[in-house]
Amino acid sequence: MFGAVLAVLTGLVVLAGPASAHTELVSSSPAEGASLATAPTQLQLTFGEPVTLPPDPVRVIGRDGARWQIATPSVTGGVVTVPVTPAGGAQAYTLTWKVIAKDGDNVTGIVHFTLTAPASAQATTATTAPTETTAAAAPAAVGTTGIPGWVWVLVAVAAVLAAGVVLVRVLKGPKR
Fold first, then answer.
1. Residues in contact with 95: Cβ distance below 8 Å, sequence separation at least 6, in sequence order
2. Between 19 and 159, residue with greater pLDDT
3. Helix %, strand %, coil % of the chain (to 5)
4. What sign does the dihedral 107-113-119-124 (CA atoms) show?
5. For the chain, how long is the longest CA-to-CA vector?
6. pLDDT tens digits, 86-118
7. Is beta strand 106-115 parallel, antiparallel or unpaired with respect to 34-36?
């Protein structure tokens, strides 16, 4: 009997996914994997719940190491808007971001996009919004992090052990 109950409890804990109370990136502009003909003058990250920003929350770095200048970002609820001054050639770029979720935990992620024309030449001639060949509303929650998986495994093992101890004591009954 004890073995069956312990097996059921273990199965429930192992099969249950970790609770995720953190916000996720719902969409971004530029979108994950977008190819842009014109470099954007602002970035926009939309989250599933209101967020706040830590210092230095956004970076854009090209494959060749070119860094974009980031102006002061603004936050309205779950939408982070970041004015940028693009720099670098036609290449792949990585936008890294970090926000503080409503529960106070740091959440980070990455969005990859590509410029098909040099950003530095566009910065002086571009007057229109960027053209994306990938939908801006595409989910871009790439590389988001919250509580590490090993923490959940440790909690699950501790819960199973605690349940086992309680179950053994209940089945044995009180000492006389």
1. 28, 30, 43, 58, 59, 60, 110, 111, 112, 113
2. 159
3. 25, 30, 40
4. negative
5. 89
6. 999 999 999 999 999 988 899 999 999 999 999
7. parallel
Query: Beta strand pairing status for 79-85 and 74-76?
Result: antiparallel
Nearest CA to 92 out of 115, 71, 110, 69 is that of 115
**Lookup: tokens for 93:** 């770029």
The amino acid at residue 101 is A
Can you read off the two tokens belonging to residue 54? 């830590």
**DSSP string of 163-174, one letter each residue:** HHHHHHHHHH--
Please name the residue that has the structure tokens 């089945």.
171
pTM: 0.60
Q: What is the DSSP letter of 132?
A: B
Backbone angles phi, psi at 21, to 5 degrees: -100, 10
Which residues, listed in sequence order, are joined to residue 15 by a DSSP beta bridge?
none
Token match 């003058």: residue?
41
Give the pLDDT mean for 134-151. 46
Give the residue from 90, 49, 41 showing the smallest Cα distance to 68. Answer: 41
Strand partners, 85: 69
CA separation for the pair 55, 113 (Å, rounded): 23
Which amino acid, residue 94?
A: T
